[in-house]
Structure formats: C-alpha cells, structure tokens
Amino acid sequence: MPARAVYSQKQDKWIKKEYEKAYDYDVLCNKSAALMISFFRWYPDYFCDLCRSENAVYSLELPQRLMMRIDARYRNSYETGSRGLTKTYTKLLGKMVKGILWTGIIMRYCAPNYKQAAALATQAYHQIEKDYPIIASAWRLKNDRQDMFRIVTDYGSEFTMYAPRGDNCGETIAEEIGAEGAEKFDMQKYETDVLPTCRIVRQVNQKIDRTFINGQHSHISNACSKQNRAYSVHRNNVLRDMIFGEKYEGYVIDMSWITSLMGNLRDINYIKDMKSKLSSTDFLREMCARYTGTEENPLIDEATLARSQKLMAMEDKHCGDPKAIYVVSHDVSYVDSQINAKCADVVVKLTHFQNVAKRDKYRKQVVYVDAYPPPNSAYLQAQKLKDLWRRFCLNGGETTYLVVDAQAYGTEVVEELMKPTSDGTPPLCCVNHRFAELEQPRALPVIYPLKAGTRGATDEDGAMIQYAQIEFEQGNVEMLTTNVLDGIEAYKRKHGIKDDYNDRKIALPYQKSAELGQQIANLKTQVSGISLKEIRRSKGIQRDIWSALKYALRYSQILEDSLKKEKYRAKSEWAEMIAGFNGNTPVASGKRNDLLSLRRR
Questions:
Q1: I want to staple 378 with a disulfide (CB 3.0 to 4.6 A). Which of 74, 354, 412, 420 is the partner?
Q2: Radius of gyration of the chain (CA)
Q3: 0.90 exceeded by the pTM?
Q4: Residue 186: how many CB atoms within 10 A of its CB?
C-alpha cells in the first residue's frame, strides 16, 4: 500500500507512514515447514497419522508408537518384543518416515535368513502401501533377487539389506539379532562386516548436522539365551549407555504378550494358542520377552556361568604371592584345520578360602586363556607349553603344575617335556612318576599326565564333569569378565600402564575367555550308564578350551584331597593326652557309671 504523509508535532515536519505493509508469504511458508519437519522428526507416529488412508487395515497403537519414538530419538536401542507385536512392520514404517524427513540417509538392514527376511519386509512394504500410500509413494522398491530388499527415494535415502565389506552407511538395523537354532543370526558377519560400515556423518552446507543422530544402531528381537552375544554383549552395552551414558544415548525395553494384548494388537485367543503349543522355555522367550538359560540339561546353567565371569584383571605371569598355586592345563591337538580343532591353554590360580565353611577348598581363578592352531610337531608344542609354565613359576616352580592329556599324541608331548633341557632349567617329571624310564636325575615332579576315560579310568570323565558342576554352582570358580574393554582397563590400572600399544595383546585372554563361555554354553550332559558324558549342541563349536579347564579342575581336586589328608593326619594338641589312656576311656565315679562299667565287663 502507498504511504501517506502525516504531520509530526514533535519533529515539526511531515513524515511518511505506511498504514498497511505487504508480507512475504514465502518466508512464512519456509519457517512453518521447518517447524513441522522438526516436530515430525521427534514424533514420527503423528506424521503417519496424517498420511494414513481411510481404508487402512492397521492404525498405530501405543506399543508401535513407543517403538517408533525410541528409534527416532536414541542412538543405541535394543527392543525385545513378543510375537505378534508387528516389530518388522513398525520398524520399516519408522525408517521410511525417517528417510523422507531426513534426505540422503543410508540404512542397512540385517536378519538371520535374508531370503525369508526379504519376503517379510516386502510383504510389510506392500501393506504400508495400502495403509500409508503417501509415505510409500516417496519410495521405490528395487528388489533384484529373492534374498534382497531395497527401497530408495529420489532424494538419496536408501534402506537395503545389502551391506558389503568396506561400504558406507549412516545407521544399522539388526532384526532377530538373538535368533538361535537352525536360522541363527550371523553375529560374526554383523560385527565384522556391517557395523564397521556405519561411519557416514550427515552434513548440511558442509557442516555437521548437530540435530541428526549419527552412528545409530537399532536392535530388535525376541528373547534368547543369556549366553548369546545379543544379550551378553549388545544388550548389556545398550543398557549401560541407558544408565550411565549421555542423554538419548541408549534405550532398552522389553515388551511381553501383555503389551500386545493391552495395546489391541492381538486377541487373547492368540496368546492361549501360543501357550498351549510352545514349551515353557519357548513361551518365556517368544511371548514373555524373558531371557533364559539353555534347556536340555545344560552342563552349567547360564545364570551360574554368568555369575562366575567376574574376574577383572587377567594374569600373564606369576603374581608374586608365594602361597598361590598355579595349574597350567593343556589340551593337546595334532589335527589340521579341517575340523577346526586347536590347542588350548588354561591357567588356574589356586588360593585358600579364608572362611571356615570352605577351609578345605581352593578358590579357582581362571587367570589366563589361550587357543591356537597346533604346532607342526610335539617338540614345538611342548616348548610353547613349557614357556608358558615358566612365566607362572616362582622359587623354582615347585608350586606350578602342568596338566596334559597324556593319551595318543599327548604322550609324545609329555615325553618331550621330560627330556633334558639345555637352557639351565631343571628337567621335569610326572608327579606319579609315570614314564619312569625317561625321568632325569633331580627332575621336578610337576607334570600330571591325565588319562581321561569312562568307568575304571584313572580320571573318569563323568567324575570330572560332576566336580566341575559342583565347583561352579558353589561359586568356587571365577572366570575373566566378558567385557573386554573393562578388563583391559583393570589390567592396565593394576600394572600402571598408561599407553595403548599392547591393548591387543592384553585383550586376547579376555576374548578367549568369552569363547570359553560360549563353548560351555554349547554343551549339555547326557546320562551314560551310571555316569555322565557331555554332548555338543552345535558341532561347529569346539570344546578344546573347556577340556583344558576341565583337566585343570581335575588336578585341583587332587590337590584339595591331598590338602585334607595332610591337615587331618597331623596330631592335634589333644593327641598326647588321649594316647595316655591306652584306649581306656576314664569314667567318673557314681552308681550309674559303676553299673555301666560292670555291664561293659
């Protein structure tokens, strides 16, 4: 509008004054759009409500809205949900909304069975096309094979299963990460190939976008075994971020069948059918979102195993305590990599318990674990084992013992250990003087040639299994922690190490100890006559490290038995007084006592 002239008495002149002013509606539109986009980024479920079709089959309920908001706000999330919670549908819908509101983001999707997951994801995508056609219209389905699900937008956003090694992405989605059995989640590929590709940092005008969550990881699954890495590593890490991390760093949520029932997602009859068809353990995992131990007679139940994994600082040499006893156990292997067998070393530190209830027992701390391909000869295997034994020796090595499975190829290893040495160290011999023809003068009796077998063997396998179970249940066995970073920090703090040059070397025993836990979790017991034997659930998981630990516990049992004999064979302060009566018990005077004496005569 044209300006009008108005006389101002204060200024004593005519001035121009605009009574109406034109407004730039383009600026208003841009500001409102930015405000709405930021709102929908925080509340993606409301964006879905605006885009929902009138003929939609599904409408978002509270559990689905909760999953979408968690996925939109937290960098690390782990959602455990029951069957029938529409996890795949909700996850895909939330990511499609995110790809629209944040242009140019690349999301990688992982699942146990890619062919089955691609079919389910495609089915969910077609359902979203019916329920939310506006959202689906921004995406294009680009599947080119059966085991592929890939959708893209015209603005550079991408959601795909394909994640080659060395690729780049902005976030990862792991569905059914806790899957076990035949369709097991490939954890090694996820951790070594997929996770390292999550390294794209979002930029706007060549500057880092501070409003965007970079490096986001989403996990969604049914419950599984507590020994599964999905629970013991990934879920625990997210839980730690939730409790001790920064704001919006991590979020863990478990939703049982009650959530889907109260959220109007499933009918009560569906729950009843699942309860009648599934076993108690499967119902706890599939419907109640409860992480449980392994079933079918586990060798050591997972709650006990997890409780034993509490030792923080590993030891790669003798601690210096003269009262400590070390047992270096070795599982012999002579086969090549055709069946993935390896040599295994386990070092167990024995110390006396201070309490009266366990005065005849040793605390057994697994301070060092290692596994490696078998050397080319028995000589090299014996030399490597003897070098490890020397590291844990103190005052000549009289309280550091070697346990070797002296059967088949193990006999050659024991013979190599007993041969004369040229390095100035004393020769070694067996504690039971086995292989006496090879025993050298002044040899140190520290080798225990273990001979495992069924009934009648010197070291019965069933008895070793039962002893190991009892020791774990009573809390007498302590293993290294599964959290490698915490273990490295504890070791470096103990030894005053401030640099990071040897972190890889320090981490190796912790990693092998975690592998030991996986081997134990893979074993179950089976009755064999009147004894027990161990059976592997998965033949692809070896038990070499567990065998070395079992042998070390066997010799620990022998040392405990000798400890009891020495302690109770010694004369007490009452021995001389009792011996003075020559077998006649003194009787106090009195009629009743006299009568009893006459009856005895």
A1: 412
A2: 35
A3: no
A4: 16
